[in-house]
């Protein structure tokens, strides 16, 4: 292959957002006597993600950082779960739970191996501050932060992928998009990028019914970041 850079989807592919958000909500709330289905809380909050971004994609509002969309979604989910009375600093702290997500066990060792031969970067809908803070907290060895905020466009808009390739000074075929989401890879593939599917069949829990496997033809199909490193000769 002529691939020189690997760009990763982050939420779900590299980090376990569901259990991380649930754990942080539980840690904040339960000492206050507030109990809930915290994985359900995380799922409900994540459920606000795509509809909020779609408003931006369709031109219904100007581009705003994901932190802003997360904060708006959190306000709705707190109401849905009838959680009231949290001081604003605590709500803001909870909103930044997305800055503190835990990596899947294979992610960091796999990325370290890949970094020995490839440029590593994000191709995420997360904003730059979110991704930088997450990298520091989780030990993610990115060379560069790319994606929605630099491109001012949310995936799967072509602009998100194409501007990232341009910023690296590479051709489309020299960049491989790595993701646990079939639709993400199809969008990257349509832009001329190479593609690698990384299976995360429990991203949404044990009853996950989508993205459990590669559903299309991609350049590489793997079960983990470590396996991807092995397949790419690292």
TrEMBL record:
Keyword terms of this UniProt record: Hydrolase
> Which molecular function GO terms apply here?
(S)-2-haloacid dehalogenase activity
Superkingdom assignment:
Bacteria
Report the EC number(s), separated by commas if there are several.
Answer: 3.8.1.2
Q: Which enzyme class? A: hydrolase
* Protein family (similarity comment): Belongs to the HAD-like hydrolase superfamily. S-2-haloalkanoic acid dehalogenase family.
Question: What is the name listed in the Swiss-Prot or TrEMBL entry for this protein?
Answer: Haloacid dehalogenase, type II
């Amino acid at each position: 292959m002529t691939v020189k850079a690997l760009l990763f989807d982050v939420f779900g592919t590299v980090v376990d957002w569901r259990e991380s958000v649930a754990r942080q909500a539980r840690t904040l709330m339960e000492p206050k006597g507030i109990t809930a289905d915290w994985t359900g809380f995380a799922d409900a909050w994540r459920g606000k993600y795509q509809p909020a971004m779609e408003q931006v994609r369709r031109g219904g509002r100007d581009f705003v950082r994901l932190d802003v969309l997360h904060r708006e979604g959190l306000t709705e989910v707190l109401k849905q779960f009838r959680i009231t009375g949290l001081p604003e600093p605590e709500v803001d702290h909870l909103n930044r739970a997305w800055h503190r997500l835990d990596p899947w066990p294979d992610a960091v060792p796999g990325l370290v191996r890949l970094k020995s031969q490839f440029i590593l970067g994000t191709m995420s809908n997360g904003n730059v501050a979110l991704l930088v803070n997450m990298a520091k907290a989780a030990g993610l060895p990115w060379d560069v932060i790319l994606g929605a905020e630099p491109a001012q466009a949310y995936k799967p808009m072509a602009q998100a992928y194409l501007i990232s390739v341009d910023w690296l000074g590479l051709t489309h075929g020299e960049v491989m998009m790595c993701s646990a989401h079939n639709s993400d890879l199809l969008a990257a593939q349509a832009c001329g990028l190479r593609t690698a599917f990384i299976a995360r069949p429990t991203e949404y829990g044990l009853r996950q019914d989508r993205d459990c496997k590669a559903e299309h033809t991609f350049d590489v199909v793997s079960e983990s970041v470590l396996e991807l490193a092995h397949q790419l000769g690292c």
